[in-house]
Amino acid sequence: MSIRSIVITGEPVLHNRTLEVTNWGKELRQLVADMFETMDEAPGVGLAAPQIGVALRVFTYDYPDESDNPRRGVIINPTLEVGPISNEEPDEETDSEGCLSVPGERFPLKRADNVRVTGFDLDKNPIQIDADGWFARIMQHEFDHLEGMLYVDRLVEPYASMASAAIEEFGWGKPGCSWLPGRDDIDA
Ligand code: NI
After folding, report:
1. Is-above-0.85 flag for pTM?
2. Matching Pfam families, A to Z (predicted)?
3. pLDDT tens, 106-138?
4. Which of 4, 8, 46, 128 has the fewest CB atoms below 10 angstroms from its CB?
């Protein structure tokens, strides 16, 4: 296992739809092991394969709480059903989201309160998760990564402009930017 570099917004793999997993072999197990290790070191509550430069429909998550859902896992080839999204203004206290591929920044975004995720685990067993609250937010965020979408692409004003300004200020928004959890000290 190894900790992998996390690519930053501007890297093309983050901005294109990823491919279905078709080969459930040793390489997939190695990828997922690396994703767990990288996510834990970052630390993050979720990590999608394109964030370590791999254009496959795989994400890991780790969001322990007291519900019955498995709160740590991997989902392969997921589908997502999304409940209604409020039209209210996003709240900076309760709706602020971050992303390891836009490290150190947080901006508020309304998400659906309820989602259903289906997909497969590493042994190709089907998975279904009904999530709500912040766990539902994580599922939406990670699924978006597999569609080539970052949360900053969904922001409303004034946050969209603030995010663009921050990305420009850091010199991101172009290929070739990344950071390595455990080596680069980033307050993500
Ligand atoms: Ni993210």
Report:
1. yes
2. Pep_deformylase (PF01327)
3. 999 999 999 999 999 999 999 999 999 999 999
4. 128
pLDDT tens digits, 60-94? 999 976 666 678 999 999 999 999 999 999 999 99
User: Is the residue at 183 inside a domain?
Assistant: no
What CATH number corresponds to the domain at position 66? 3.90.45.10
Cα–Cα distance, 176 to 59 (Å, whole number): 22
Selected catalytic residue, list 142, 147, 157, 168: 142
Per the CB < 8 A criterion, the answer to whether 82 and 139 are in contact is no
Taking the centre of ligand 1 as the mean of its atom positions, its distance from the CA of residue 100, in whole angstroms, is 5
Q: Which residue has the tokens 């589908």?
A: 79
pLDDT at 187 over 60: no
- Angle, CA 133 vertex, CA 58 and CA 79 arms, to 5°: 30
In this predicted model, what pLDDT tens digit does every residue of 142-172 receive, in sequence order?
999 999 999 999 999 999 999 999 999 999 9
Residue 15 lies in a domain: yes
Distances (CA, A) of 111 to 9, 35, 102, 175, 181: 21, 25, 18, 28, 27
Nearest to 35 by CA among 65, 10, 64, 1: 1
Residue 56 counted as domain residue: yes
Residue 9: which domain range? 4-177
Query: Is 20 assigned a catalytic role?
Result: no
Q: How far is the CA of 145 from the centre of ligand 1 (A)?
A: 7
